[in-house]
Amino acid sequence: MPAIDALMRPQIAAGRLLPRSVNAHAFLVATDGDMLLGAVALRHLTPRVAELCSLVAAQRGVGLGRQLVTALVTRARMLGYEEVIALTEATRFFERCDFATQDLSPWNLDCSRSSTPFQTALAEANELKSATCRRCTRRPRCGQTLVNLSLGRKAA
Question: 128-131, long-range: CB within 8 Å, 24+ apart, which pairs?
């Protein structure tokens, strides 16, 4: 989707958004007629954990980001995920969206002694996410912090 890519490009160049390939099926978008106002992607990590990524809005401070996050969380719940994680520099924004800020980034997180539902769910996704982070060229100067939202247990 060229429109999503065009909206993301300045944020990637500024270092506020991590570079990602655009798969239109993964994105929820906000539009006004033909104009793209914002987008957010849901990335499957494991059957229990999804990643919120590439949250971008044409205009900040008007509530669009929160609406996109809310819609993505609703979609994640409908798909049966138990956790939604994100890497972000905007921890205060995500805290206002009920996400919890974690002290460590995925490449530093030790889930070998998983005790909480979050740790157990994240342990499943951590190997994949940490491998991605370790390969990232921005890692030496990375300011991203891990945030998560527990959606509760799947119905049996």
Answer: 128/45, 128/46, 129/45, 129/51, 129/85, 130/106
Which amino acid, 153? R
Task: Judge: domain 2-150, CATH 3.30.200.20.
Answer: no
Structure tokens at 24: 């239109």
Between strands 145-150 and 100-101, the pairing is antiparallel
The string of pLDDT tens digits covering residues 87-126 is 888 889 999 999 998 876 655 555 555 556 666 666 666 6
In sequence order, what E strands does 102-153 have? Answer: 145-150
CB 79 within 8 A of CB 153: no
The answer to whether 77 and 42 have CB atoms below 8 angstroms apart is: no
Rounded to two decimals, what is the model's pTM?
Answer: 0.80
